[in-house]
Amino acid sequence: MPDVRTHRSRSTRPHDYDAPDTAAAFRRIAALPDGPERSALRQEVVCAWMPMAVRLARRFRHRGETFEDLKQVAQLGLVKAVSRFDPSLGTAFPSFAIPTIVGEVKRHFRDDLWGVHVPRRVQELRGRVRFAGSECASLGGHEPSVPEIAAYTGLTEEEVRLGQGALESFTALSLDAMPGCSADSHPLTDTLGGMEPGFDQVINREALRPLLRALPERDRQILYMRFFCEMTQARIGLQLGVSQMHVSRLITLICARLHDQARGRTARRGLEQSRRETAAAEQERSVLIHERDSARAQTAQAERDNKAPAGPVDRPRHKDHWFRHRAAH
Q1: What's the mean per-residue pLDDT of the chain?
Q2: Distance CA 3, CA 6 (A)
Q3: 3 CB contacts (<8 Å, ≥6 apart)?
C-alpha cells in the first residue's frame, strides 16, 4: 500500500502543514477497481487532508453556526473532492479540493441555516448589500443610506431595500426573546394579537340588515331613536305619544322578533342546503336505477333474440294488408 506522507519542508508558503504528498495515492486510487482496498486508500487520503478542511471551516466562524458543524460540512466536502478528483487531468489536488470544500460550506449556509425560505436572488442581494454597507461605513465614517449603497453596488434602490429586508431573515428570534436592552422591554409574545371582537359584530350587522329593512316604519323609527340616537325610552314615548312602559315593551318585542327571524333564517338556510343535497342524491340514485333497468332490459332482449326462430315471420300490421296477404297465398 502506498505511503501517504505529509510534506513538512521549510518553505515560506503558508499552510504547508496541511498539504500532504498524496499524488502517488491518487494514481493508485484511479488504477484500482471498486472494492475494499480502494475504499481504504481513499479513507487514508481523506484523513491526510483533514487539517486543510478544518482550516477552511475556520474561515466561516462567527456566522451563526457552531464550529463543530462547520467542520463536519467541510469534511463532507473533502470526501466529495477525493471521490471526484481525477489525477490524469494534471491538476493539483488543492486547486480542486479548496473550491469544492468552500462551496459545500457556502451551500450549507445558503440552504440549511435560513430561518425562513429566501430566494437565491434575494440571498445574493443580501450579501452584496451587507458588504457594501460595511465598506461605505468604513470609508465615510457613518451608516450609509439606501442611495449611497445603490450607487456603490450599481443596484436599484428597490433592490437595496430588498436585500436589507433579508439581513434579519437568516435567524429567527424566539417569541420569548426580549428585544432591546431597556428595562421596559417586553417579550415578543406580548405583541401578538388576539381574536378581533369586531368580526362578530360585522357578521351580526350583515345578518340584521335585510331584517331591519323589512320592519314596519314605526318599528324602524323606534330602534333608530333608541340605539342610534341614544334617546331614552321616555323621550321616545313623547315623540310617539305613548308611555315609557309601552316603548319598553315595543323594543323588547321588536328585538325578540329580529332574534327569532335571524335564527330562523340561519336554520332555513341550513335546511335549504340539506334539501338541495338530498335532492341531488335522489337524482343521482334515480339515474343509477334507470341505467341498471336499461341494462337489464337490453340483456333480456338479447336473450329473447337468441331464442327466436331463424326465419322471421312476415305478419302485416294492418288488417287490409293481412287480407291481401292471405289472398295472395
Answers
A1: 79
A2: 10
A3: 24
Cβ distance 113 to 64 under 8 Å?
yes
Residues sharing a CB contact under 8 Å with residue 53, sequence separation 6 or more, in sequence order: 71, 74, 75, 77, 78, 101
- Count CB neighbours of 25 within 10 A: 23
Is 56 within 8 Å of 74 (Cβ atoms)?
yes
Chain centroid offset of residue 72 CA: 30
Q: Among 316, 295, 298, 314, which residue's Cα sits nearest to residue 306?
A: 298
CA 237 from chain centre, in angstroms, equals 60
6 three-class SS: strand
Q: Write phi, then psi, for 6 (nearest 5 degrees).
A: -95, 125
DSSP reduced 3-state for 141: coil
pLDDT at 328 over 70: no
Supply 182's cell numbers. Answer: 431597556
Mean pLDDT confidence for 57-85? 89
Which of 272, 254, 172 has its CA nearest to residue 216? 254
Type of residue at 96: F
Question: What DSSP string describes 77-135?
Answer: HHHHHHHH--GGG---HHHHHHHHHHHHHHHHHHHHS-SS---HHHHHHHHHHHHHHHH
Lowest mean pLDDT among 7-21, 105-119, 209-223: 7-21
Q: What is the pLDDT of residues 92-116, one digit of tens each?
A: 899 999 999 999 998 888 777 777 7
- Among residues 76, 85, 130, the alpha carbon closest in space to that of 103 is found at 76
- The burial of 71, by beta-carbon neighbours within 10 Å (0-12 exposed, 13-18 middle, 19 or more buried), is given as middle
Query: 0.70 exceeded by the pTM?
Result: no
CB contact at 8 A, 170 and 113: yes
d(CA 188, CA 185): 9
